[in-house]
Write a structure and sequence with these properties.
Radius of gyration: 19 Å
Structural class: mainly alpha
GO biological process, one term: transmembrane transport
Main location: membrane
Protein name: Zinc/manganese transport system permease protein
CATH class: Mainly Alpha
Membrane topology: Multi-pass membrane protein
Order of helices and strands: HHHHHHHHHHHH
Keywords: Membrane, Transmembrane, Transmembrane helix, Transport
Length: 276
């Protein structure tokens, strides 16, 4: 009898953990692939701004009673389009992001204030609530991730060229402006999907930190991308597993593992520079 009970408990745990691990693995893959390009293009602040608009869309969805994932996706795509279209010059980028971020965050706070449901849902938008990932959310995540990966594969070569040297890419006929908008949308989708895992305030731990760690230890774009994927997966899946025993928020462990990897890579690169 006890063996059957133990088996039932094990199956329940697996059913509980499986959607989390699948969601985490997909988001780690997206973050690892997009991260090096984000770092190269100096878009860390843009990612933060997009995450705040994803929070606004999610808060609006929570208020009107539709899927939070769809609201976050709509909010982040709108933010990405606005940032891509309004940031015509590099000198304008930070001010445009700041203006859109402040407006979006204000709307998000208003939507949460009007929402009369559970407080846990409000905090989940800010700090993540991966335990709430259901079958519908998981399918949205899978379909969106596949779409991002397909588009990224199609535009990667010209996008990387434009990211490294936009002036030369423009002279060679590369549609730099169009690629910037498309990439901003891809980042927006990835950010929206990440909000449910680590929350709007901690998206940078998935989209930026692994890539920043990878670029500290290698100058090769290919190696940096592979390392960023590995670092992101270790951060996400490791953080999830570590959070199970104490039952604490996943985001705290994901960000801690990610930052620890960054510190190790930074110390390693520092030692190499001193030896040279």
């Amino acid at each position: 009898m006890e063996n059957f009970l133990d088996l039932d408990i094990t199956l329940d745990v697996l059913r509980y953990v499986q959607p989390m691990l699948i969601a985490g693995a997909l988001l780690g893959l997206l973050g690892g692939l997009l991260g090096p390009l984000i770092v190269t293009r100096k878009m860390a602040f843009a990612v933060h701004g997009t995450s705040e608009l994803a929070f606004t869309g999610a808060a609006a969805a929570l208020l009107i009673g539709i899927g939070v994932g769809y609201g976050a996706l709509a909010g982040s795509v709108i933010a990405a389009l606005l940032l891509g279209l309004l940031s015509t010059r590099d000198s304008d980028r930070d001010s445009v992001i700041g203006a859109i971020l402040a407006f979006g965050l204000g709307l998000g706070v208003l939507f949460l204030a009007l929402y009369e449901g559970r407080a846990a849902n409000k905090f989940g938008l800010l700090f993540g609530q991966v335990v709430s990932v259901g079958s519908a959310d998981l399918w949205l995540l899978v379909v969106s991730s596949v779409a991002v990966l397909v588009v990224l594969a199609l535009i990667y070569r010209p996008l990387h060229f434009a990211s490294v040297d936009a002036a030369v890419a423009t002279a060679r006929g590369v549609p730099v402006r169009t690629l910037s908008v498309v990439f901003a949308v891809l980042v927006g989708i990835a950010v929206a999907l990440s909000v449910q895992l680590v929350g709007a305030l901690l998206v940078l731990s998935l989209m930026i930190t692994p890539a920043a760690a990878a670029t500290r230890v290698t100058a090769s774009p290919l190696k940096a991308t592979l390392l960023a994927v590995v670092f992101a997966e270790v951060s996400v899946l490791g953080g999830m597993v570590l959070s199970l025993a104490p039952g604490l928020p996943v985001s705290a462990f994901v960000t801690a593992v990610s930052f620890l990897i960054y510190l190790v890579c930074r110390l390693t690169s520092g030692k190499r520079e001193r030896v040279r």
